[in-house]
Amino acid sequence: MTNRTRSRRRSRKSHQATNLQSGASPYIKRNLPHFDPLDPEQVERINQQVDWMLENIGIAFRDDPKALAIWQKTGTKIDGDRIFADAKWVRELCSQAPTEFEQLARNPDRSVVIGGNNQVFAPIYGAPFVRDLENGRRYATFDDFEKLVKLVAMHPNLHHSGLVVAEPTDIPVSKRHLDMVHAHMTLTDKPHLGAITEKSRAQDSVDLAEILHGTDTMDNNVVIMANVNTNSPLLVDRVVSEAIQVYSSRGQAMVVTPFILTGAMGPVSTAAAVAQAMAESMICCAFTQLVKPGAPFVMGNFLSSMSLKSGAPTFGMPEPVTSNYAIGQMARELGLPLRCGGSLTASKIEDAQAAYESADSMHSTVLAGSNYTLHAAGWLEGGLATGFEKLVMDADRLGSYQKIMQGLDVSDDQFARDAYEEVEPGGHFLGSAHTMRHYQTAFYDATLSDSENVESWEEKGSQDMRRRAFDKWNRMLDVYETPPMDISVREALDDYVARRKSELPDAWY
User: Rounded distance, CA 485 to CA 487, Å?
Assistant: First the structure.
């Protein structure tokens, strides 16, 4: 093969990759008003419940003596490991966290702003299994993980790459965080999360971020975030409190999310679960401010209903939809950025159940004003499986929210007066100058939807969306190109990972 042939192939591959990635901004700047369903009396009732829980029920900080020592220095009432905090003081501490902040990506064009009127979409997090149309359901491997990271890197409607897009179960638990963080730093140039499952793993993530971005940049900016769940009900375990101490002490952002299945980790009533989620998040936000005043914090919300017959979680149901709306309004009143769940479903495959449940869940998440939406794409089986087809199907639909959140444009050009002057009564607008100016951007193009006539569909093999999605993600991987990186930075990342893996024993738990 000649050098000229190689050059042409690289150029063609780059052009194909560009076409697959084009069409969206690095995050959504929302113009559409938020949906605030609560009246002032309802807001006050929820606030009263939150304050009552903070002051009278208390929230435990367990198995972390250092965290308890930090609380003790403030004179807060402590009984055993349970914190009883003055609610007004907790709210004052929460007010120190920024309303919005920027997370820098290693490619500045992909940095995101979280909070305010901005919305950021990230993929599924934490599934031990993967599923695709040809290979079915299986434990995820690091090869699966890398493929998913590459797909997220390429898709224009996913603004943030998250971290555990699937658990690479073929790597020891003690070491896999290093490979995952390294992959996000090298295979994509979008912002990402760090590890949280153990204090040293959180520290490794922060150390790698410092290598990637440099100490000066890290000292003055958010370059990595961490997402962690409280152990609901009313328990902040050492995974949460130690992660806060590692990330917040360096001024990096914490996302703390109570994971409440109402009826199990919270009461069956939605109002009580919303208040509980707020109390758990707020005490963690207050703790971040004790660790470092001004440290960025995102209030997380993951409320789901469950089948009281079987105990199985349910998604896209009216109760969690309502909780999204309520918690969004309450987070804005507090002045904290919000994280909600995304395209959630209990379905095992990409079927009608998955479509209905994911659509209802995602639509309420967006209207509620979720500033950072984890699980926006790829979620199957209640979060146990990452679907390759589901990832690109969900991401395809996410692009529609880019248009919806812009709101209605009522500028002079949008009223198309020149078109009305050009087109005769009974004519058509297809060839008008106004149409020609806007035909490429007027409507969102859902690339995986087939809107052609049935004859055309049959001629192409009568494919359903799952098959079209399978073909799409395979084409994407065929043209994927690794984002460029300074060789000295890459070598430093490689060296750090190799050194730490040599120091750690293999552990599978």
Answer: 6
